[in-house]
Design brief:
Strand content: under 5%
Helix content: over 70%
CATH class of the largest domain: Mainly Alpha
CATH architecture of the largest domain: Orthogonal Bundle
Number of strands: 0
Shape: elongated
Length: 212
């Protein structure tokens, strides 16, 4: 089977422009509301030219989701069994918050897909996300069994980390409206979440006087 020829510089540039434009359109309008015409216009290309690179809106969306899942799941993959449990969890929280800060459109793209019932990501959710979460939940459970973390449900701990970090991307306008000017939501969230999860996960009595 002949190998596909590598993209030329201009082909690579146009592919990246299409994906960047599509990310903006999808994150604002959702999959259903987005059109190829909108994506082509934002990318500065004609619709026929866009279709030379991607045969459909579905193909563009699938490419974005594949890239997003890799970026989104890498911090969880890096949870290290050899590390200190508290440090590993807090580092994961911080990295997820940084992803929300640095990639808010990607977060909203994924949230929109999930809110629609995840019709285009069922495969990755079951084949990639679930085994990874189950594996890391088992690691957290082992740390809890060793008395190195407070007893919590590992899966719901991970869900809580997702909820508290991705909120700042998905509800950015609301967060900034409530906090008002002069606030750095992410710096303040970092300080708060480090305290929240450290206090929740510290084994009882580890850093506090024992009850009389």
């Amino acid at each position: 089977m002949p190998r596909s020829r590598p993209k030329t510089r201009i082909q690579q540039k146009n592919s990246e422009a299409i994906l960047e434009a599509a990310l903006e359109v999808f994150s604002q309008a959702g999959f259903r509301g987005a059109t190829l015409d909108q994506i082509a216009e934002r990318a500065g290309l004609s619709k026929p030219n866009l279709l030379y690179y991607f045969p459909s809106k579905e193909a563009i969306h699938a490419e974005l989701i594949r890239g997003l899942l890799k970026v989104w799941l890498d911090p969880l993959r890096e949870l290290d069994a050899a590390g200190d449990p508290m440090d590993e969890i807090l580092d994961y929280v911080r990295r997820k918050l940084e992803l929300s800060r640095d990639f808010p459109r990607e977060s909203r793209l994924f949230a929109n897909e999930i809110l629609q019932g995840a019709p285009r990501v069922q495969g990755p959710l079951h084949d990639e996300l679930k085994p990874l979460v189950d594996d890391k939940a088992a690691l957290i459970a082992s740390w809890i069994a060793q008395g190195r973390l407070a007893p919590v449900d590992p899966h719901h701990l991970i869900f809580s980390i997702w909820a508290t970090t991705q909120h700042y991307a998905d509800f950015d306008v609301q967060v900034r409206a409530v906090l008002g000017p002069g606030h750095d939501p992410y710096a303040e969230a970092d300080s708060f979440l480090m305290t929240l999860f450290r206090n929740s996960l510290t084994p009882r009595g580890a850093n506090a006087p024992r009850d009389a």
